[in-house]
Design a protein that fits this description.
One of its GO terms (molecular function) is hydrolase activity. This protein has about 325 residues and is mostly beta strands. The protein is built from one helix and 21 strands. The chain folds into two domains: about 100 residues, Quinohemoprotein amine dehydrogenase alpha subunit, domain 2 (Lipocalin), CATH 2.40.128.120; about 170 residues, Jelly Rolls. An eight-stranded antiparallel β-barrel has the order 1-2-3-4-5-6-7-8. Strands 9, 11, 12, 14, 17, 18, 19 and 21 form an eight-stranded antiparallel beta sheet that branches.
Length: about 325
């Protein structure tokens, strides 16, 4: 009798242990099964919009949020990256709507498209009710397998003649003793030469309340603003517009000369502002508003913004990878 009583607890223990393990295994299996499968839409896309016969760059990123919801970010032909609260996707077709940013009009900005493999196409309707067609391809990862060897530095601002640059419109830029100056809002200034990976040193001076920017490969804007006293932000000095905020705000007083030292390798950017590291090897997800194109896999020019107010630049030196 005693041996029988003693055996029952052991049997019950084994039973409950096996049952607990079975429950745990079922939970694990259901968790694995519940993990959402990636849709063909997910990832980053470089878009080109037909704006009345002229190509204009745009960008889209789509990711999962939870089991069933698709969310994302969108960069239009102007403005910063803006969040998409939900992307509707079924049978290869998708659509989403977002509030207007800098566009004129009171309606939402809406996008419709179809994805097929690594390509997509569709139409977008701006808040003023105008529709435009667009096409897209998957954005390249731009990952580098080794650190580049650096070539010979190229000076882009010397003397009293603007050399190696062209204006995107009627030129208002002048140069004297190596100082490029835009006294009022006007055209942006673009290098004739295009670059892949590079190191860049640039010095600038901006009056109170003005705004400019340095576009890397003509696609990724590093903000030049009157940022003294501001909180670090992707829209202020040293921010990659719409994507990356500097770790600190190290702006000097307006009217003082300041500097950027940039290293761009693939998508990875490191930035010193006024000699202080504020971005350390962070990824730029995609093009920023105001980009020249969305061909991220190709070399691109350097360009400086002259359409947002007066600004001066000097000692612009770029060192391309070999």
């Amino acid at each position: 009798m005693n041996s029988l009583l003693q055996s029952k607890p052991r049997s019950l223990f084994r039973y409950f242990t096996v049952s607990a393990l079975a429950v745990m295994l079922a939970v694990c299996i259901s968790t694995v099964q519940a993990k959402p499968l990636a849709t063909p839409l997910e990832g980053r896309w470089d878009l080109t919009v037909d704006m009345n016969g002229k190509p204009a760059p745009s960008w889209l990123e789509v990711t999962h949020s939870g089991n069933h919801t698709l969310v994302g970010r969108f960069v239009s032909v102007s403005g910063s990256a803006r969040p998409i609260s939900e992307v509707h996707f079924q049978d290869g077709k998708f659509n989403f709507s977002i509030p207007p940013q800098w566009e004129s009009g009171e309606n939402d900005f809406s996008v419709q498209g179809t994805v097929q493999g690594d390509k997509m196409s569709g139409t977008l309707t701006t808040p003023d009710g105008k529709s435009h067609s667009w096409t897209g391809v998957r954005a390249p990862k731009l990952r580098r397998t080794s650190t580049p060897a650096w070539g010979k530095p190229i000076k882009l601002t010397e003397g009293n003649m603007i050399k190696g640059w062209h204006a995107a419109g009627t030129n208002q830029w002048t140069i004297q003793d190596g100082v490029l100056k835009s006294e009022k809002s006007g055209a942006n200034l673009i290098t004739d030469e295009k670059f892949d990976d590079f190191k860049l040193h640039v010095e600038f001076r901006i009056p109170k309340g003005s705004n400019s920017g340095v576009y890397l490969r003509g696609r990724y804007e590093v903000q030049v603003t009157d940022g003294k006293g501001m909180e670090p932000s992707y829209g202020e000095l040293g921010g990659v517009y719409g994507f990356i905020a500097p770790s600190e705000m190290v702006a000097k007083e307006p009217g003082e000369w300041q500097s950027f030292d940039v290293t761009l390798i693939g998508r990875m950017i490191t930035l010193d502002v006024n000699g202080q590291r504020v971005i350390t090897n962070q990824e730029i997800p995609g093009i920023t508003g105001g980009a020249l194109d969305s061909n991220e896999g190709e070399p691109g020019p350097l360009y400086i913004q002259g359409d947002h107010g007066p600004v001066e630049y000097r000692n612009i030196v770029i060192t391309p990878a070999k």
